């Protein structure tokens, strides 16, 4: 409870002059004292009636709100006023750090009954947040005090990555368009149907039992295999917090993973996801359907970088134990540190004995060929360019070393990470490498 403007003006225009007159003019002492007593009694009585100010007010929020990062949204607020109409209240929420309210507080004139307002907000950071309390401020019955109180709320806000960024939307559109346009190499491996023999059909495509039953040559028709398992493995260790191209590497990896998941769902393949640091953070077995895609999105939506080194041995052992059939496993990790690259190489060779293993890494801004950038103006620029060339050369050597063991490492630009990852998946499907 805090003094209102009405009480301050009442004391300033009535109480203070009465005190001065009581001390200076003895003739009006009785009247001045009476006025002071009236003001004090009114303030005390109004303060004792403060509980009536918040009586009959109830604020309701939805249980769950799903928002998209960087896209303005509204929080629906329902206010029940079971007391007198015409109440003027101030309402505000303790917004979580990843969501900004616009504005922070609002003044609302409430009629009797139910009122609904839309509270603008701007989700800034991906993750899951909660709003647990709503704060109210209402004038007391005589308006001399402002009564403040809090009500319990239970709103869960889930902020998902914006797939319109990082070229993800373009990758999704291209993935849908190429569903029927991509030319497959080879005849396919999955049996589709039987048909009459046509000149030019290979002898190994003839179904001999059907030929014997029907008395004429019958050929087997194959199609490209569907429902193959695709796993995206996200590195959430210390290097994932680095900003590459103006955004953290982990955020780009999550967007790229969800983009590939959406494309595989449209292609009819099974999509699974895993995340690790020095331990396995989350794992969702490959399945199909939109509900499963939502489950994968929920599993990594609260993923945060941890200041630890990645344990490639732990995640590869886990995958070897839990993946029952041959799958495409794509690691989204950073391999520009020689020690980490060596650990990944040793672990990936074991996993590649049964699965098709690939790694996609974001190219650091400094890792580039020596003469890629000709703007050399000082000695420091020369040394910086030499350091970048050495880092780029180490990455190329690692690519060659892993390629000899059947592990492909792709170095992508940050701006087109999602699109290039979809291209990598398309290349595997086209060549039927799984």
Characterization of the model:
- The chain is of the alpha/beta class and 434 residues long.
- The protein has three domains: 2-48; 53-160, Immunoglobulin-like (Sandwich); 229-431, Rossmann fold (3-Layer(aba) Sandwich).
- The protein contains eleven helices and 20 strands.
- It has helices spanning 5-24, 29-48, 51-54, 168-177, 208-214, 249-267, 290-301, 312-322, 338-351, 379-403, 417-431, and strands at residues 2-3, 57-60, 64-68, 73-81, 87-93, 99-102, 105-110, 113-123, 127-139, 145-160, 190-196, 218-223, 229-235, 243-244, 247-248, 270-276, 280-287, 327-332, 356-362, 408-412.
- Strands 1, 3, 5, 7, 9 and 10 form a six-stranded mixed sheet that branches.
- β16 and β17 form a beta hairpin.
- α4 runs parallel beside α11 (417-431), α6 runs antiparallel to α7 and α9 (338-351) runs parallel beside α10 (379-403).
- The chain is elongated.
Please provide a brief summary of the model.
The protein has helices spanning 5-24, 29-48, 51-54, 168-177, 208-214, 249-267, 290-301, 312-322, 338-351, 379-403, 417-431, and strands at 2-3, 57-60, 64-68, 73-81, 87-93, 99-102, 105-110, 113-123, 127-139, 145-160, 190-196, 218-223, 229-235, 243-244, 247-248, 270-276, 280-287, 327-332, 356-362, 408-412.
